[in-house]
Amino acid sequence: MTRRLPWIIKYRPKRVADVINQEQAKKTFLQWLESWLKGKPSKKAALLYGPAGCGKTSLVEAAAREHGLEVVEMNASDFRRKQDIERIAKVAATQRSLFARGKIILLDEVDGISGMADRGAVDAILHLIETTRYPVVMTANNPWDQKLRPIREASLLIPFKRLTERDVVIALKRICSAEKIECDEKALREIARRSEGDLRSAINDLQAIAEGYGKVTLELVRMLSTYRNRQYAPFEALKNLFNAKYIFQAKNAVSQADVDYETMMIWINEHIPTYYDDPEEIWRAYEALSRADVYLGRIKRTGNWSLLPYVFEMMGPGVAFARKIYRYKWKAFRSPQRLQLLAQTKRSREIREGIARALAPSLLTSRRRVKTDVIPYLKIIFEKNPKYAAKIAIGYGLTEEMIRWLAGPNARQVLQYYRKYKK
Length: 423
Ligand SMILES: Nc1ncnc2c1ncn2[C@@H]1O[C@H](COP(=O)(O)OP(=O)(O)O)[C@@H](O)[C@H]1O
Ligand SMILES: [Mg+2]
Description:
By secondary structure, the chain is an alpha/beta fold. It has four domains: 22-159, Rossmann fold, CATH 3.40.50.300; 165-224, Helicase, Ruva Protein, domain 3 (Orthogonal Bundle), CATH 1.10.8.60; 235-334; 339-422. It contains 21 helices and seven strands. It has a five-stranded parallel β-sheet with strand order 2-3-4-1-5, with helices on both faces. Helix 5 (121-131) links the parallel strand 3 (103-108) and strand 4 (136-140). The radius of gyration is 24 Å and the shape is elongated. It starts with 6 loop residues before the first helix and ends with a helix.
């Protein structure tokens, strides 16, 4: 069964030279690391910061590999608890034995601790920095939170640049030719544009499309990309939709929204009861939305794009004119609860951890990597391509609960294939 590597793992930089377009950061970081190895660091910790998917963690891993250092790592979900940081601090403070390999202590994504729940974590990290005998490296997207100030002051700050669209396109092209897949230049540019410099999400999108369809075209990119954990709120689109006076306004609201059709559907789904209170209106709106869903499913199965206008018709005017009389309503739009609930509950975190545990050994990578890099990719596959998802699930021995978690609204379909293939 399918056990192909996620490209995000397969193509991660092996050497410092493979980390593209971060020359200044690389230079500063390597100088600092070498000063540590000579025993005279200017600061005992370094804080690498910059947008997601621009090479921070990759640089640490590549530099460690080149210097023969072991990476002792922790990510945000682990250092919410003070005891865990103290455990790492103990390892870090221990004098290395003569034959042991040197280490880098990596606290990945420390901005995850800036919430109130993590009082004590900052102190524990400062203590770790004071007592460590090994270089301590932290990464963050946003290092400017007030809570992190003491950590900033104790660290060498190393900024990373957002990758440009050009950088992203070049990286994607390289992967396309290594994988021998047909990639339309325009499609790659579109992926790059949507990634906003986040190469991790760009590579995940590329693979999700290539593996699902065997080629990468602009049309497929438009259809499939953007389901990411990012909290993009198509507030404008929702407001325009629910307050449309004319059919064309409702249609434009959905066809011009800056998210893919399925994400838009989740948002609309979530807001029908917020916006309508009359049961009949609610019923009619859901009816229209589920028709849109049926059409979209048919398009995906058959590739028959001529049905797309019907999807817009149902999602837009179908939902907007479910109301009996026009009245302008202002509502504070929430982000979709289904997405939030999935991300927040304890059980959900356990499942995520379980998936990481199941995949890490065969992907030859850490559980942290699986959580940050592989799971977002799997979510795309599981939500878009049930057959392929079912094969992956069997290949990696995932449970039905894990499948449900990964596939969300698509779970039933994936499970059908899963049970069929399993026989
Ligand atoms: N500057 C870069 N050079 C080469 N590959 C990169 C770069 N930035 C990101 N990537 C790719 O994206 C993936 C995620 O990068 P990572 O270093 O984990 O990002 P982050 O900055 O969020 O830590 C890597 O596995 C790699 O494939
Ligand atoms: Mg990272």
